[in-house]
Amino acid sequence: xxxxxxxxxxxxxxxxxxxxxxxxxxxxxxxxxxxxxxxxxxxxxxxxxxxxxxxxxxxxxxxxxxxxxxxxxxxxxxxxxxxxxxxxxxxxxxxxxxxxxxxxxxxxxxxxxxxxxxxxxxxxxxxxxxxxxxxxxxxxxxxxxxxxxxxxxxxxxxxxxxxxxxxxxxxxxxxxx
Length: 177
What we know:
24% helix; 5 helices
């Protein structure tokens, strides 16, 4: 049992530090309709200096922002992560940009269990996401992720292949074929 827990922890750690370029995962042009910056919900911290419960659509609004717009909107000093990405610890996300840090936000990653995905949350089973978001547009049972199209973006939901419990979501700016 201890070995299984250690293995799962390692898998979660590895997946949380790897970004998957959305073009490689989805192979199609960007169909996301960019919203005006004033429609982005700014960060709101609660007593313990963490972000309150969020709706995943707040994260969708970050897609397409420039690095400066993103930092100004969130209001938190980010740390650099792999492939030109940024981590906003208090906001509970990592983001990657088109052109390895030079273009607009291309993908947003979260593993926070307080994000509401239309009634389901990270930590629920992948079947619960399928009930809410419908048929997958791409799925890989070996790597244990399911991609769902939602309003011109892709929700890439990662889960444990044995328990089917979700542990992370990437919001990608590309629509899958």
